[in-house]
User: Fold these one by one.
Assistant:
Number 1:
Amino acid sequence: MSAHTPRALRLRIGVGLAAALVLLGGAGLLAWWNTDILGQDRFCGDALPSSDVSAVLGGPGRLAQSGLYEESDPYYSFSCKVQRTSKFVGGDQPLLEAELSFDKADFGLGASRLWKNASASSYFIGGATGAVSQTQAWVLLPTGCAKEVRPASQQAEIPVLKMNLTRGRSNPAALARAALATAQHVAAGLGCTDTNALKMPARLQGPVDDTNPAVLCGMKGFQLPEAALVKGKAEPGTAHVTGRGSRTRVCDIVLQGPGEPRISLAVSDDPAVTKAVRRDETATQGSGRTVTACASGDLYVGVSFNDAYRDVLLDQGKDAYETARSALFTSFQHAAGKDYGCPPTDGE
């Protein structure tokens, strides 16, 4: 403005500029509070790029790391939390949690209170061994790494990267990418040198429809033995099974009866699963988990129940329970063996 500009006009221009600055400042704060502009590039100790986190935690709000624990002395530990925060969106925002855990290799393949509906997950094909749903993912990490051993460790337990999404849902492919990126970071922290074990899967194999009672769980000739059924309490129901693309397949049979009694069946010729289960001395037919040596490699077979089905069987008496459990395992083991070209011997 020149010295000859009228005072009233100068005042109006000054007020206008001040208002514009206020609006720009407000817009900047709005963008800062409700988007990831100028936010972090990586999270969880550089394990996760912000693009991977954003793909999982969709929606408005700003990505914020709400917790990270990563230590290497005297042994390696890892856990991390990332969530959306917003001053404009009410209620709890989506939260992504990742942790290094030690568990049995088949922990996610059977009936579990925390890892439910294994047949509803998508299993990795090619690359790493793992599974993912819209809210959970797990990846088996290499064993025998330099910093794997810890106090009270058990031979049957192997390192696993677990990821859990609460208060939201994600595209499984996006959650799988985040889990793999974190698994690679954690494996490096454990001192693992086998980089081939944690490659990104070529694709995911999800569940398929299974409505043919003559090919229950997608295995020709497999049927529930009569000993496994209880009239009015555990009658034939619906089977849900994953497709044949993955080396690990899971079938959940939801029976008709109070409390939705459920039988979970799993079979795998994935070496990451079979080798780890072989380390477990409790993996026997009596426990519903075995590994059989086949001409083409080992074959894992697992059978487990939820509490509702276990209670139904136990109500019939301990002998009836053992008979049903044994008949069910034997029937599935034989069907899986034939399906994989590895029929069990008479002694198995």
Note: The mean pLDDT is 85.
Number 2:
Amino acid sequence: MSKSFINYSISAEVISSYDEVAINNKIDTEAFGIISDLISNQSMSEFGFEEDLKKYGWTAEDKNNNGQTWLGYTQPQFAHTGNGLAINIPNNKMNVDDWIFSNPLKLRANTRYRVVFYLRKFSEKPELLDIYLGNNATSSAMSTVGASKIEANPDGKYHRYAYELVPQAQIAYIGFAHKVKGKKWLMLWLWMMLDLSMQL
């Protein structure tokens, strides 16, 4: 497993006089490591959305600015396993373009990685998901297409999806894009659990 999501304690000495700290000129703080290190052979990282997305380095983008995008949700009866999931509910919004980005991943460039996730929907209409790789957690930085127009199974149950990604850089982010243009949808729900591993 990746040695990410570790609590650290940091002690720093202030050098600049503008940042002087009273008493002993030192300050203690805490940090939380969010990089998943997948450089070594047979390394693997899992994230089941059991914890706070922001704390663990996951972010979302409402690219079409309609006030709705991906969020973490705790509800065991809806999760694939455990209690957590990520959902997107556009809820009668037009031209959906919502993104969710992984925590930073330390990868071996030009090496195949497998990304596995579980997807479910509640709408009777087609629900499509695209996967990208990029060097930053923004839609504009998602330069490599991993898979496009992945359609959630219409039976309303969780299904496993697996795709291969080949990073061009050592630090990368996975972007999942839920995009629907031109139609007004009633209720769109996409749920997933992520599993990433190196393929030799």
Note: The longest strand covers residues 171-184.
Number 3:
Amino acid sequence: MRRMIAAQSYRLIHEKGFWGGLAVTILYALAVLAFSAYAMINNGRSIALDQLYFYGYGLDSFIPVAGLVLAAVISFFVGTEYSSQTLRNALIIGRTRTEIYLSHYAVSLIVALIYQGVYALIVVLVGWPVFGGFHLSGALIGLGTLIGVLALAAYCALFNAVGLLSSSRTVSSIGCLCGVMLTMFLCFFLNTKLQEPEWIEALEMRDGSSQVYTLANPSYLNPSQRRFVQGVIDSLPSGQSLQLSGLNCGHWAVLPPISLIGIVLVQGIGLLLFQRKEIR
């Protein structure tokens, strides 16, 4: 399988999509630094390097930038395997479907790590003199990085499965991008529900005078609903990425096991379906 990974890596570095994704990552890192510096200088905002570092996984608790970039690059790269008959030729020369599936996943993960490594390198090297060092402890930075890498690994598992199970590059690319967008909006909506206050104030006019009173918020989720909603957010790579960018540190410890379970499930189901797929 090492030869397959090497061959696919060689083909990848000659793909315009790979370099396009890298260029987007670099521009995104520079834009984050530029806008943050502008906000700090002109608006007097205090910005920590920690936040900029974790913006590599999602922008301001809303846009999972890494997921969108990987969705485009991985689905496009894997999707060309059918049109170029690379998969068929690999089977003819004796490669197993398991080798093909896992080698594609390995290359996808390498791409994700390269992009994230480049982003982190730019932000830390350029941002440290401007914004100062990290405010979070080394343990939290390490835990957050682990969560981010596992979220990227989960993205790669999903995009690799879609790309190899769909014979159409266009369908797989659109499906991956739409999937990330839908989960992004879903996580944003669910997070707003979690932020609802338990009590709200209402204004009532009586005899020409106003009176403020407190009443229960009908939109406030009960404990069982809150656990369910939080579980949905935690189970999605987009949800984990957005929690990282929002620096919601108190909830980070439960995320790595969830990601590992998700990766194993997606890999297992994807590999099982790929074993049965007809390749022409």
Note: The radius of gyration is 22 Å.
